[in-house]
Design brief:
With 459 residues, this protein is α+β, with helices and mostly antiparallel strands. It is 49% helix and 9% strand. The strands form four sheets. The chain has a four-stranded antiparallel β-sheet, with no helix packed on it.
């Protein structure tokens, strides 16, 4: 039992013995709680009946009966006798034993103060460091931005001089960039050739990354675009639109049929629904229109002339026309070239085939992207194939959705990814629908059932 100062008051509580610590600042309180046994008379215990450590020079109030009550006592309180379990520190009084609750106050030792001060100081340094870092950087996102900015600065510093000889730009020195990766610059072709062995691996890796960024970018619409009259996306089904040779415009069947009905009702000449030029069903007139448009560097007509050469067996002429149309930005010509290099009408070349497929896919051609997915599957790169088919499905490509369905059953695409692709595909298909196009589809089906193929007989 620890020593108790003369100012400490011994108090008696009811309940089981326990210890607890309370306090603020530099002080703490150690509380020992005890129980006492029943008393039969009010007797004031004498100092001689208590251990000297408990008495501590203090006087005790007399005992009094006050059952089932628990409270703190001061010098004026009376001691209530109660029934309780035996425990704690006992003293003998009238053949009975009573247990006390003590409160003891003491200062922490100097060692404890030092340890706590060191711990608090360490925690304070950590908090201040974190606060300053967060204030300076603004969080993980800003740290990433700072690192990216520093990388850009280093890259800019590296591109401000020739990576081979170190000559800086200016004073008549003009640096040229590496066309494949844009990471380094050279002062001359000679320096570029000398540095090629050190730069080749990095250049190829960076070039592949840049290529993938462009290749896996979702096109806003397909290569066909919108109908220039109703401004609704054209369907991927080539039977639902027609090409006007006079203006090289793709017109949806809904707008073409509406224009036809108007002309029939008013007994007007059949004219193009877009440019109003008189229409002719003669193949020769159509070819003459294409030739005139080819001279004006029209990519659609140039591609159509390539199709004519291909059907006539003139593959060299087809390659010439399709290459020119591809350079003018026609994705359909790119796809035609890929088919040409795959079938072997000319010398087979898988590299050129894949290159033209990728260019067509970048231009929004869903069939080309679907074929790239097949190519990636053959090379066991299923993740890339799935990405290609998702992009094609977002453009309304039905075959790509069927491939994604099989990939989902084999666990190659997640449930969320497949569901998102289904929704995007349906939205793309719905965007191509209109009441006029649906009415035209019914009229075409009815005309075909009668064996008629002419638009003028679609009634």
């Amino acid at each position: 039992m620890p020593s108790v100062s003369n100012d400490t008051l011994a108090k008696i509580y009811l309940g089981q013995r326990r210890e607890r610590y309370t306090g603020t600042g530099d002080c703490y309180t150690r509380v020992l709680q005890f129980t006492m046994l029943p008393q039969v008379s009010n007797v004031t215990p004498t100092h001689s009946e208590l251990p000297s450590e408990i008495i501590g020079g203090s006087s005790f109030p007399p005992l009094a009966r006050n059952k089932q009550q628990e409270r703190s006592f001061n010098h004026a309180d009376k001691w209530p006798p109660e029934r309780a379990e035996r425990g704690g520190i006992m003293f003998k009084q009238s053949a009975h034993q009573t247990e006390f609750r003590l409160e003891e106050e003491a200062l922490y030792s100097n060692t404890t103060h030092v340890l706590i001060a060191i711990l608090l100081g360490y925690l304070g340094v950590l908090l201040v460091s974190k606060s300053l870092l967060g204030r300076h950087c603004g969080g993980d996102d800003d740290i990433d931005k700072i690192i990216a900015e520093e990388a850009k600065e280093e890259e800019a510093a590296g591109k401000s001089c020739c990576v081979c000889c170190g000559i800086t730009e200016g004073d008549g020195n003009k640096l040229i960039e590496c066309n494949a990766c844009d990471l380094v610059r050279y002062c001359s072709v000679k320096c570029q050739e000398e540095h090629r062995p050190q730069h080749e691996a990095t250049c190829k890796e960076r070039a592949a990354e840049l290529r993938d960024e462009i290749l896996f970018r979702q096109p806003e619409n397909s290569h066909l675009g919108d109908c220039p009259i109703c401004v609704l996306p054209l369907s991927n089904d080539q039977d639902e639109f027609s090409l006007q040779s006079c203006c090289s415009k793709f017109i949806c069947n809904g707008c073409g049929f509406a224009n036809l009905k108007r002309q029939q009702e008013k007994s007007l000449d059949f004219t193009c629904p877009f440019c109003r030029q008189k229409m002719s069903e003669s193949v020769e007139v159509g070819n003459m229109n294409h030739v005139r448009r080819v001279a004006a560097n029209d990519p659609v007509s140039t591609r159509e002339m390539g199709v004519k050469h291909y059907n006539d067996g003139d593959f060299e002429g087809a390659i010439e026309c399709w290459t020119k149309a591809a350079e003018l930005g026609n994705a359909m010509a790119r796809y035609d070239l890929s088919v040409l290099y795959r079938e072997g009408s000319v010398k087979k070349d898988e590299g050129k085939e894949l290159y033209h497929l990728e260019e067509a896919a970048i231009g929004g051609h869903p069939d080309a992207r679907y074929n790239i997915g097949l190519y990636e599957t053959e090379n066991r790169r299923f993740d890339r194939a799935v990405n290609h088919w998702i992009i094609a499905a977002n453009l309304g490509h039905g075959d790509s959705i069927q491939k994604l369905k099989k990939c989902y059953t084999h666990g190659l695409v997640s449930k969320e990814g497949f569901a998102a692709a289904l929704r995007a595909h349906q939205a793309a298909v719905d965007a191509t629908k209109s009441p006029q196009r649906e009415a035209t589809a019914k009229a075409i089906a009815k005309a075909k059932s009668r064996g008629s193929r002419r638009m003028s007989e679609w009634q």
